[in-house]
Structure to design on (954 residues):
């Protein structure tokens, strides 16, 4: 784990709650039951929707399905998937957690692959354990995934061989099961978060008469600790059957040859006779009265949901049902947009809210609104949700609202069609199996666009409103409040609040009409003063007369996609009048809108445009980082130039931040990992207040005047550097830049380095660990070791340390996870600063039980000592280096990688040479160099340790 400003992800984490609310294999849910065909291998065989013709679908005589597709993005790679259409719902009560446990055992021995050999075998092929080699278990699906950096015959044969071994040849050795129990229990501890606990409580309320509440994939501690081999075998034999399986291969391959390999490798797979059928998981009632549920967790932010749940009506995926779904999606989006308008004011009781729909486990059709609410204003939040939902149901939607959503959907579909030729291989493989699991046709982006465009005359406010109502009418609402507040009579209070609100009339929404973007003229177009080609890297560097500098790399890696980054000023190094202003500015600046448009107005003004304006206060620059299309590049640059010249400085942006920061703080202290971001990131940087989570007093002390004073000097004068990578011509790029950034008044020729702000000191080594505390479960602890190293001024040295870190990772996995079962996954990272001289560290950490903290530290120190003494084999170097070289090879044809390498290359021209040497530097590192690095830096007396324990632990 690289510890930095990770707490900022808390805002994004709150947004992800909306995905968790539906926590299920997504299925669209058109209205109207029909007589459905049942005897088919793939649904496209029996519906009017055409499947992607580039996918070869098939089914072997034993029932195994397969799908194979050629795809060249990135080139020379392939993704292999094997999935089964049953997960934790197939478990008996004494098997709870075994579907997931068996997924672990797939890496622990089969008839032809000894225990401990699968992962090293894959690493020698360039796969990294975790990112490239993984598995997953859900309620209804178990899956295995291999992302091959080399799609050659040997690698493909190895991948398919390992999938075949997993399908029916796992040993499930009792001793191996016993060794893995600690790993699974560690994963359970890591996943025991407030959100998971809330999610389980929500399912228990929504679907009380089903198996779902008692089939969380992680299972129960009792079963994981005690289940014997025969219970594993029972599940494995009954649900790992060819009839339930699907193999997917996508990549830079010969599809027909891969089909032949699948047939040769899997045709002999025969499952047991009469395997178990799908379980009866229960039912829901359409006659359930208005009901309320309450869940208390002191570390959870306040979440309110209202659901309309009815028995599931099976439907066939078809053009008609997809049209119906589009209408429903538009209705949900408009309601969500209304919530966004309310929350953007900064004074709403809602922090975030959205509408969604789902089909839950084949038993329930559900419409939902989920809202994150200010805890002290939960009743107002419930009232707001009730009234906005009822306003939509009673009065429908306006033409302006519809136009905005149609524009956004149309743009998304059009861009998807234009970019279809460079879709990522891994994403395509996952779309193929997930469409099968959801009984949907994987159509082409072009056909989706054509159907949408043909349907537009029928997409009216009346049609959208009517479809929206069908999802909510006819059943009583189910109300659920989860909060950190302890409440008496919570259920009755919740119903009373809802019903009191329902007694109040609601007015029809206003039709605000269309808005026009106010920033299209910045003066006379700028003139280019210099142009340079850097042929070996495929770059063009331009500079306008006003000083704006441009680095441009044209690529064809992503069709019709242009990545844009704009850097200016010195970011965290800039002078600030008070603590936390720099941290808060990163979240508040764009949320405050522009002079002529609020942030909410920008959503309407820019509807149908593929643009963005993500803003970041970085270690040594302020930056916008976004992606657009060639057709929208000009308005993208209009927008960024508007933020440079006329920011809004509205109070509402700060008010939104102040509303959400208590929830981020609550969430951060609910787990050991959250404390790492909130506190440790500051401690390892000499207590520097530019890092970590700001104190409540600091947040309260920052006002918009302080934020404006912090940002304005750089906005007005600092040199601007633009990096553009993607599918656009130089002429089109200049056409977009010259009348925007190029038209600005001359920028300063240089900017202060602020050397006095570049001093960060690593803490001194300590005999005993520093102890911090989290507020989560009493069985969660974390042990962390840091060794100070060096800065990033020598790229060859930095890359050697990265390789040492990769070798350390192999040893940590083998020792802490596989041999001692101390942790689900150790974290480790090498971090060298290019901003703060002489500052860097190598870090190792692990989530463990409290009673094994000392054992974990001892194991980490022993491994570090082994590295320093020369215990690094050539095989370990190969297994660490090969995945890194394969990642470099793939990155050479990846726009995001080029953007990270090229950004600020005018300010730091040495970055261009670093690109040229990246592969040779890694190839040149020797085993002796790694040993020398370890001996120099990884001694125990140099280390700084921090233990994170439960709040009440001694």
């Amino acid at each position: 784990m690289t510890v930095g400003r990770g707490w900022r992800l808390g805002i994004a984490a709150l947004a992800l709650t909306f995905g968790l609310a539906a926590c299920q294999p997504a299925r669209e849910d058109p209205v109207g039951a029909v007589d459905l065909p049942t005897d088919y291998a793939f649904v496209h065989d029996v519906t009017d929707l055409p499947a992607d013709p580039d996918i070869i679908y098939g089914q072997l005589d034993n029932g195994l399905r397969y799908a194979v597709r050629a795809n060249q993005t990135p080139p020379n790679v392939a993704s292999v998937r094997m999935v089964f259409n049953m997960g934790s719902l197939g478990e008996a009560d004494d098997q709870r957690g075994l579907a997931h446990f068996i997924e672990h055992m797939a890496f622990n021995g089969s008839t032809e692959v000894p225990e401990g050999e699968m992962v090293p075998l894959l690493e020698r092929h360039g796969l990294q354990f975790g990112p490239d080699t993984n598995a997953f278990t859900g309620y209804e699906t178990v899956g295995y995934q291999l992302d091959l950096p080399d799609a050659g015959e040997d690698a493909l044969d190895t991948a398919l061989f390992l999938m075949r071994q997993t399908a029916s040849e796992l040993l499930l050795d009792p001793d191996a099961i016993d060794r893995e129990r600690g790993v699974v229990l560690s994963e359970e501890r890591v996943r025991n978060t407030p959100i998971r606990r809330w999610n389980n409580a929500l399912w228990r309320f929504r679907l009380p008469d089903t198996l779902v509440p008692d089939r969380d994939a992680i299972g129960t501690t009792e079963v994981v600790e005690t289940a014997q081999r025969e219970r594993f075998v029972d599940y494995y034999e009954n649900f790992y059957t060819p009839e339930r399986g699907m193999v997917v291969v996508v990549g830079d391959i010969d599809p027909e040859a891969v089909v032949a390999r699948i047939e040769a490798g899997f045709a002999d797979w025969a499952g047991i006779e009469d395997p178990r059928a799908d379980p009866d998981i229960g039912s829901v009632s359409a006659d359930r009265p208005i009901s309320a549920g309450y869940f208390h967790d002191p570390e959870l932010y306040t979440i309110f949901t209202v659901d309309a749940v009815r028995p599931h009506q099976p439907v066939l995926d078809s053009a008609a049902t997809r049209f119906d779904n589009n209408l429903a999606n538009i209705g949900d989006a408009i309601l969500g947009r209304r919530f966004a308008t309310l929350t953007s004011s900064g004074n709403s009781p809602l922090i975030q809210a959205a509408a969604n729909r789902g089909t839950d486990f084949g038993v329930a059709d559900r419409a939902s609104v989920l809202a994150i609410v200010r805890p002290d204003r939960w009743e107002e939040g419930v009232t707001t949700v009730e009234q906005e939902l009822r306003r939509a149901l009673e009065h429908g939607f306006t033409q302006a609202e519809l136009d905005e959503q149609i524009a956004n959907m149309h743009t998304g579909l059009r861009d998807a069609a234009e970019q279809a030729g460079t879709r990522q291989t891994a994403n395509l493989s996952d779309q193929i199996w997930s469409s099968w699991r959801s009984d949907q046709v994987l159509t082409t982006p072009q056909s989706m666009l054509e159907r949408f465009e043909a349907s537009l005359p029928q997409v009216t406010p009346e049609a959208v409103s009517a479809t929206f109502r069908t999802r909510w009418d006819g059943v009583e609402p189910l109300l659920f409040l989860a909060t950190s507040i302890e409440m008496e009579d919570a259920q009755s209070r919740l119903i009373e609040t809802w019903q009191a609100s329902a007694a109040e009339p609601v007015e029809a929404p206003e039709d605000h009409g269309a808005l026009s973007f106010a920033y299209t003229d910045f003066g006379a177009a700028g003139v280019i003063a210099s142009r340079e080609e850097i042929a070996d890297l495929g770059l063009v560097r331009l500079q306008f007369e006003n000083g704006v500098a441009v680095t441009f790399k044209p690529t064809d890696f992503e069709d019709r996609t242009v990545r844009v980054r704009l850097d200016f000023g010195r970011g965290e190094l800039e002078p600030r009048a008070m603590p936390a202003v720099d941290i808060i500015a990163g979240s508040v600046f764009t949320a405050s809108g522009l002079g002529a448009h609020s942030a909410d107005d920008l959503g309407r003004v820019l509807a149908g445009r593929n643009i963005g304006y993500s803003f970041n206060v970085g270690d040594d620059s302020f930056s916008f980082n976004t992606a657009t299309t060639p057709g929208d590049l000009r308005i993208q640059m209009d927008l960024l130039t508007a933020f440079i010249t006329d920011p809004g400085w509205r109070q509402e942006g700060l008010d939104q931040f102040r509303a959400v920061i208590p929830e981020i703080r609550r969430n951060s202290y609910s787990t050991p990992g959250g404390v790492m971001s909130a506190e440790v990131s500051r401690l390892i940087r000499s207590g520097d207040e530019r890092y970590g989570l700001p104190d409540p007093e600091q947040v309260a002390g920052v006002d918009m005047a302080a934020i404006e004073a912090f940002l304005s000097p750089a906005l007005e004068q600092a040199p601007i550097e633009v990096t553009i990578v993607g599918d656009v011509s130089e002429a089109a790029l200049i056409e977009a830049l010259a009348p925007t950034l190029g038209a600005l008044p001359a920028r300063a020729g240089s900017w202060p380095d602020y050397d006095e702000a570049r001093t960060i000191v690593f803490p001194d080594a300590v005999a005993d660990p520093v102890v911090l505390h989290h507020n989560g479960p009493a069985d969660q602890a974390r042990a962390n070791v840091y060794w100070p190293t060096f800065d990033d001024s020598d790229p060859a040295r930095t890359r050697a340390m990265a390789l040492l870190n990769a070798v350390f990772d192999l040893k940590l996995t083998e020792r802490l996870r596989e041999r001692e079962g101390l942790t689900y996954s150790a974290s480790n990272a090498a971090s060298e600063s290019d901003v703060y001289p002489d500052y860097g560290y190598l870090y190792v950490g692990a989530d463990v039980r409290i009673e094994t903290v000392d054992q974990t530290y001892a194991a980490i120190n022993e491994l570090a000592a082994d590295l320093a003494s020369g215990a690094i084999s050539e095989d370990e170097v190969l297994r660490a280096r090969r995945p890194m070289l394969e990642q470099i090879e793939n990155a050479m044809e990846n726009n995001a990688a080029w953007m990270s390498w090229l950004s600020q290359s005018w300010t730091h021209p040495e970055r261009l040479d670093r690109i040229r040497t990246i592969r040779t530097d890694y190839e040149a590192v020797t085993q002796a160099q790694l040993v020398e690095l370890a001996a120099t830096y990884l001694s125990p007396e140099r280390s700084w340790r921090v233990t994170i324990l439960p709040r009440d632990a001694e």
